[in-house]
Write a structure and sequence with these properties.
With 156 residues, the chain is mainly α. The chain has one domain. It is 73% helix and 0% strand. It is built from 6 helices and no strands. Helix 5 packs across helix 6. The N and C termini lie close together (8 Å).
């Protein structure tokens, strides 16, 4: 197995571990939604999963030290979730803070998913899709350059 296959297998393994919670939450959200666009919702979930997997791999390759990652990643995850409209409505915030939140990719993921559940989008959906596409493209370029020179200590 080469290095890219190992990294992809690890990412797929963690994705499968998250799958039961995702199916349960999606089912509950679908039944409680005002209107439910099933194919758009599934597409949004898949794109979000792929983006988060790619982001996680890129962040792991950027840090390169397992023990530093254990301390950094929970804090960074907490900050990213806190600085997104996950728990509050973005439209009620100051315009400067709204603009600040638009830099966070999680804001655009939530915008896309919520729009498929019948909620009003905080920004036009095409802006979120363009932002996510560009974010994913730059992460994939970063990964393509970084995966050439990694060294994996684990035995296969």
């Amino acid at each position: 197995m080469n290095r890219i296959e190992i990294v992809l297998n690890l990412a797929l393994t963690y994705s499968i571990l998250v799958l039961p919670q995702l199916v349960i939450a999606s089912t509950i959200a679908g039944f409680n939604a005002l209107e439910f666009h099933a194919w758009g919702f599934v597409l949004a979930i898949l794109v979000v999963m792929v983006s988060l997997i790619v982001f996680s791999i890129a962040a792991g390759l950027a840090v390169r030290n397992y023990y530093q990652a254990l301390g950094i990643f929970p804090f960074v995850s907490w900050i990213i979730i806190l600085l997104s409209p996950a728990y509050y409505d973005m439209r009620n915030l100051n315009i400067i803070f709204q603009d600040f939140l638009l830099v966070n990719p999680l804001t655009h993921y939530l915008n896309w998913i919520r729009s498929q559940l019948g909620s009003q989008a905080t920004v036009p959906l095409y802006i979120s899709i363009i932002y996510i596409s560009l974010f994913l493209f730059f992460l994939l370029v970063f990964l393509a350059r970084k995966l050439k020179g990694i060294y994996i200590l684990e035995r296969i």
